[in-house]
């Protein structure tokens, strides 16, 4: 079983709780689309746009940050 994930890079402007450690963080999300138009999404998938401004909630795991809510 292969699962598609998308990595989003965010510029951190404000932290409400916790620490980011950098001005930019990479956050992973289930789902996405491959170059050959094969895609996958789940109930937890978000389709974010380049340049958009988002309030995100993420959790840190050994695999990095994962989106929980946008």
Kindly describe this structure:
The chain is mostly beta strands and 70 residues long. It is 0% helix and 41% strand. It has no helices and 6 strands. Strand 3 and strand 4 form a beta hairpin. 7% of the residues are buried.
Short description:
It contains no helices and six strands. It is mainly beta.
Write the layout of secondary structure elements.
Blueprint: E1 5-11, E2 24-30, E3 32-33, E4 39-40, E5 57-61, E6 64-69
Parallel strand pairs: 2-6
Antiparallel strand pairs: 1-2, 3-4, 5-6
What key attributes describe this structure?
mainly beta, single chain
Order of helices and strands: EEEEEE
The secondary structure category is: mainly beta
Largest sheet properties? 4 strands, mixed
The mean pLDDT is 86
């Amino acid at each position: 079983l292969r699962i598609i994930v998308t990595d989003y890079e965010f510029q951190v402007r404000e932290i409400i709780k916790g620490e980011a450690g950098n001005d930019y963080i990479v956050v992973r999300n289930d789902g996405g689309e491959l170059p050959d138009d094969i895609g996958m999404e789940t109930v937890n998938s978000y389709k974010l746009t380049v340049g958009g401004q988002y309030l995100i909630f993420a959790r840190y795991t050994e695999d990095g940050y994962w989106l929980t809510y946008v």
